[in-house]
Write a structure and sequence with these properties.
This protein is of the alpha+beta class.
Length: 227
């Protein structure tokens, strides 16, 4: 018996850990990259008299694996904002670099899909680096608690975006379809209904990567292409 053979449970664990890489997780999260953020006018400070207006964009996420059981990742989502505070008599201008931390946990679903579960941050976890354009703007930001308002807004915004269908679709890995296509590539055979009917929920690069992983593992476990 081939000493390289393993039982089904161990093979499945190996496949799961190999298929869900940092790069593939970031491809799913980065469907958010480039999304615009439009704030305001938002009342801040005592009496909500001051009004904040901001424009910005979500950047490209970075991350790393932080757990093996469950397979989990820490991802930082950057946001840049340029905004102003209207005090009624004049305006003060600011720039902000914001980091939104996400926890991404890979879950196994009964239909042989891998679901990336994105946990939105709490307000206090959002990091805001504020740059005031001038001393008066700096004093205004402290009085109006601009950083606190931005944390609350960005945390709510990201949480809502994570619930949208385009994010949900990008964070589901169709393992059954990818394995079917990889197995079909081992030798000439008719295309199966499953291979023909892939849902296309994933970015093409992610799906191709899973197919490659499936084929490598199939071949490694002793399944040779027919001559």
């Amino acid at each position: 018996m081939d000493e390289d053979l393993v039982d089904y449970a161990r093979w499945g664990e190996r496949f799961f850990a190999t298929a869900v890489t940092v790069d593939r997780v970031l491809r799913g999260v980065n469907v958010l990259a480039g999304r615009p953020i439009d704030v305001g006018p938002l009342g801040v400070g005592p009496g909500r008299i001051a009004k904040v207006t901001a424009r910005g964009v979500i950047g490209t996420a970075t991350g790393q694996r932080v757990g093996a059981d469950p397979v989990a990742f820490h991802v930082d989502l950057p946001v840049t904002l340029q905004f102003s505070i209207d005090l009624g008599v004049d305006q003060q201008h600011f720039d902000a670099d914001i980091t939104v931390p996400l926890v991404v946990t890979a879950r196994a679903r009964a239909d042989l899909a891998i679901v990336l579960d994105l946990t939105p941050p709490q307000t206090g976890q959002v990091v805001v680096r504020l740059r005031a354009q001038g001393l008066r703007a700096s004093l205004t930001s402290r009085a109006a608690n601009v950083e606190g308002e931005l944390r609350r807004f960005v945390a709510r915004y990201v949480a809502k975006e994570l619930e949208k269908p385009y994010v949900r679709d990008a964070t589901v890995i169709d393992v059954a379809g990818a394995v079917e296509r990889a197995a079909a590539g081992l030798g000439p055979r008719e295309e199966s209904p499953m291979a023909a009917g892939l849902t296309g929920d994933l970015p093409a690069a992610m799906e191709a990567g899973i197919e490659h992983t499936a084929q490598v593992l199939l071949e490694a476990d002793g399944e040779e292409p027919p001559a």
